[in-house]
Specification:
By secondary structure, the protein is an alpha/beta fold. The chain is 44% helix and 18% strand. It starts with a strand and ends in a 24-residue tail after the last helix. Bound molecules: 5'-O-[(R)-(carboxyoxy)(hydroxy)phosphoryl]adenosine (KG4) and zinc ion. The site of zinc ion has 5 residues, from helix 4.
Amino acid sequence: MKILAIETSCDETAASVVEDGRSIITNVVYSQIAHHSKYGGVVPEVASRQHIAKIHEVVKSALDGVGIENIDAIAVTAAPGLVGALLVGVNFAKGLAYSTGKPLVPVHHIRGHIASNYLAYPDFAPPFVCLVASGGHSHILHVKSYTDMEMLGRTLDDAAGEAFDKVARVMGLGYPGGPLVDNLARTGDASGYTLPTPKSPGFDFSFSGLKTAVINLVSNEKSRGNTPVYADLAAAFEMKVATMLSTTLIKAAKSVGVDSISVSGGVASNTLLREMLKARTAEENISLYLPPLSLCTDNAAMIASQAYFQWQNGDRAGLDLNAYPTMDVSRVGFNS
Ligand code: KG4
Ligand code: ZN
């Protein structure tokens, strides 16, 4: 079964065709970063307008060599995300479904991120515990089946990627900050600065205290006429975030008694987090599934993969499908 998926929840206009939830036939991503970087973050209206301008080209090139007549269903990210951005993809998908008479499958963006590992590892299957850490989300989920999942913990304030982006901004590195902090940290010494260890209950996270500590440190140093050693600061910050994420994730997996862990979302491409998780899961005899870097950040192949399993579960949307800026990841279906 071939599914064409469309993803426009944030600043990537993406379309992809995936067969049986596992094998990528085409995967097209148009990144809007160049349009947002001068503002230091994603500007929602700019995102919507870029999606409108590019979506037809992106979908057309995802269908190149496949043909719409060979598509069995059309999937689209309908929540969560920037609502004006989501609406572009939802409306385009509805138009395609209407004109071709093909069924429409709505997908939750975070469920899509979880599915990125189904594409990377053909035999990977639930149950497992997954960390989804991106610019908008930081969740730990118990994925009991392809469509039944329970949230075990989440950020109480900033998302992990958002904290990376804000720290990068105060260091004058640019946007998006995660990869830039990651690169800089490779040349730094994490013991060069002492940052607070964030505390939060259960399997929740908190990044805002850590982020504020970095911001204050930079402004105090500057007010004394000093230039902070940014590489050391990047390394110290990254060490705290990676330690918090990996420790909490392993604790959560043990608490529900699963021996497989996966990570996805943009922050899953962080070098130290990947290394730390590889080492710690090996010590604990836990299997670790990390997507390749190309599937960590937003793409439509992961949406098509999750759509296949939602389809098998009977999930369909009518042409009255709407877009939702927030939605509980454990919610079943999109009908209100
Ligand atoms: O999943 P994603 O593409 O979009 C959202 O759904 O948010 O994630 C983007 C986020 C950004 O905040 C970016 O700074 C962060 O992922 N990111 C990283 C790295 N690469 C991307 N954070 C830390 N280290 C990285 N190497
Ligand atoms: Zn995402």
